[in-house]
Amino acid sequence: MAKVNIALDAELVVEVMVLAGIGNPQDAVEAVVRDYIARGHRTEARAVSREDSPRSGEIVPPEPPQG
Q1: How far apart, in whole angstroms, are the C-alpha atoms of residue 57 and residue 51?
Q2: Model's pTM, two decimal places?
Q3: I need a labelling partner for 7 at 20 to 30 A (CA). Which of 38, 48, 53, 63 fits?
């Protein structure tokens, strides 16, 4: 896997580490990026299921908020 090096504000990284409970800065930032991607995929899946539901006649209840 290719690696990318970027500069980030140290305060942002420390806040992510504290919120995520991760002691390694790289792992903490990687976890945030993975979560962001997963959230995007969930949103896409929800949008597709809502678009398909009127055609199939089934009612899709709203998903609870993800926090």
Answers
A1: 11
A2: 0.60
A3: 38
